[in-house]
Amino acid sequence: MAAQLPRSFTERMKELLGPEYEDFAETYNEAPHTGIRVNTLKISATVLPGLLPFPVEPIPWCGTGFYTEEGARPGKHPYYHAGLYYIQEPSAMSPVELLGVTPGDHVLDLCAAPGGKSTQIAAKLQGKGLLVSNDLNAERTKALAKNLELAGVRNAIVLNESPERIAAAFRHGFDRILIDAPCSGEGMFRKDEDMVRQWNEQSPRKYADMQREILAAAALALKPGGTIVYSTCTFSPEENEGGIFEFLSAHREFEVVPVGGTGSFSPGFDPVPGAARLWPHKVKGEGHFIAVLKHGGTAEGANAVASASAADGESAASRRGRALASAPPRSGGGRGRDTGGSGPARRDKTPAGRGAAGRSSSGHGDARRSGAAAGGDGLAAYGAFLRDQLAREPEGFPVWFGEHLYLSPLPGEALNGLKTVRPGWYMGQNRSGRFVPGHPLATALTPEECLRSLQLDGDGPEAVSYLKGETLSVPAERLNVAPGASPKGYVLVCVDGYSLGWGKWQDGMLKNEYPAGWRWT
Ligand SMILES: C[S@@+](CC[C@H](N)C(=O)[O-])C[C@H]1O[C@@H](n2cnc3c(N)ncnc32)[C@H](O)[C@@H]1O
């Protein structure tokens, strides 16, 4: 690497590593390792490697992770645009592997942007339960939302909040919390030389102060018996074992689950040897620290919605939110005939359900208009869309932001007062009585859930043409049309069976609905 490592950093590393330091220093003359992680929401980790045009090797600590070789360019393949994998630094795949997520859990990813670990959590949830992905930096939540959408995640809420406000709203609400903390980034010096330039001697202290506050808030948001995984990509003990020791001293109900010293994970330094470290001179990956913190209480307790209700006081809305929490998510509009009747969409169509909507930004329109929810007009349009375009009705609590409809894993009321970037899975927009489906709806759907689909060949030129936004000439015989449906209408465009986006078919032409901001360049 070209950048000079700061002297005070190398001095400290010599002291920490002793005789191992030479091996550690040598890694700065080697190229960083690269990897992809299979998105098991879409495809299995045993199938994808055989479909890829470049070789991959398994990553020992992540069953869905694979090393890629230099020159592989995994971002330049239609499968990447179908969300079949996420490009991720190999060590960065380890924290979620240690979080122990199972389908149905309520999971909070507190420092989530740009979403590498959130998409990994979503894959482990398999569409069941709840993922709240949060980041304090509003700009960075845009990439977070986009990556969740690319991965076809249906049950995620994206927030732009402080950890303290999340803890107040969802007190003891989550089974598992990931803190992938902001840090001085020493473990990434080899991969990203900007990290070297941004570092100074005060960096570890500055970040340790931030990390302390984030950890304290996470403890309040965790259910009794739940698990927090704290991770950084830095070497400084002050931001790692030091911060964890301080946290444990103030939170006696937590203990460290010993993962350090097992498998690929080296032990942490005293006084927290049970924490795990990934060293670049010992594994094929960059520097990482992980501590698994288990709360000693029993796992009984409120889930995220019930806790939100308790924190707000027992208002009618919160009682309803709590009651709904145990019910299965309901659909947004009802298929066909039930277009704006007395179904759940009407009851829940409060615009994100809340007076705080002015602070919300869906990114799919102007959330400040949310005082004017879509009327029966919007519901009728959505109902007609379901009837004419989809074979199955998507599930979730309907939340309207103005004319934009989302299906949320929580009732809209649960998000009252929180800066909400995405309240759930984006369905689309009512435009004067016509429902225009959103791109995230397409990326999460399978061909079986649509009345029309088109298969493009991953090796052929058409998939890239589609991703570039071009119109395709498609005879009706090439469409897969459900029995009794007309070929005219929205078509789920797929590459080898995996959805890419929408097209609109009429008279042999497929109008391209792939969004401009997502196009292949
Ligand atoms: C290491 S990055 C997260 C990477 C992410 N987990 C991933 O896998 O893609 C740390 C993130 O923490 C965010 N952040 C910084 N301070 C924060 C705070 N007090 N609360 C929540 N997020 C914060 C930063 O904006 C940054 O996006």
TrEMBL record:
PROSITE patterns cross-referenced by the UniProt entry: NOL1_NOP2_SUN, SAM_MT_RSMB_NOP
Sequence segments annotated as region (Disordered): 313-373
Molecular function terms, GO-annotated: RNA binding; RNA methyltransferase activity; S-adenosylmethionine-dependent methyltransferase activity
Low complexity bias locations: 313-330, 352-364
Active site (catalytic residues): 233 (nucleophile)
Native source species: Paenibacillus stellifer
Annotated S-adenosyl-L-methionine binding sites: 111-117, 135, 180
High-level lineage: Bacteria, Bacillati, Bacillota, Bacilli, Bacillales
Record's protein name: rRNA cytosine-C5-methyltransferase
CDD domains, alphabetized: AdoMet_MTases, RsmF_methylt_CTD1
